[in-house]
């Protein structure tokens, strides 16, 4: 089966039909949730602090859903309007923006504490137009990311490179933009379970011109794999059953204000009247 990146541009590949299928497939949800969990582990965020994370290629909000469950505020970017429509229908907590990351993007400098991306950045290494230069798209992306991250922030990208050339292209563009980091490989001895994570750090001094490949998680026994998958599926079902914060409640409004404030927008001051239902019955007789 050919790779999605070799078939169509992402905004066309993830059309309405593919987006719905992608979101409703239990196998995909399970895999994407595990990848998100691992990426957040590599981010090493202080979950007791209020953090704002940029979810790059957020899709229908599967990774964002996990971020929300961890108490993390997030903003999602994606090139597929169909995927974002599904995310809105799922009432994800993150703010969603339509964006081609290869063209770069602009946020207030230093607004994000970290960034995460699941199964996305390999798309930057392919072109569907003669005018598109994959390396320039990678460079535009990492430079935009650098500008909106706080100093010493970390970014973790799980990705599926087709070959070493794509790995070199991505890491070279990241180093050129001012990042340092390594590639973490989970389950290196398994062709099926092997996963690559690009773990970047912004700030500090590094003279490295290449990135090291570090062994991450080792291969598990078949029995342990079954147990892990079972636990993960139970966790997904439990998270789906949990009630979300009701819209327009005080907690929902306060969380929304915090997010808007972090993005540099003006919001009204929170008072004891915030979220209180207005009773107009006394105005009319």
From TrEMBL:
Pfam families with a match to the protein in the record: Methyltransf_11, WBS_methylT
Keyword check for Oxidoreductase: no
Keywords tagged on the record: Cytoplasm, Methyltransferase, Nucleus, S-adenosyl-L-methionine, Transferase
Highest taxon of the lineage: Eukaryota
GO (cellular component) term, any one: cytoplasm
Residue stretches in coiled coil: none
KW Cytoplasm (keyword) present: yes
Molecular function as annotated in GO: rRNA (guanine) methyltransferase activity
Domain 18S rRNA (guanine(1575)-N(7))-methyltransferase Bud23 C-terminal: 209-279
Protein name: Methyltransferase
Species assigned in the record: Paramecium sonneborni
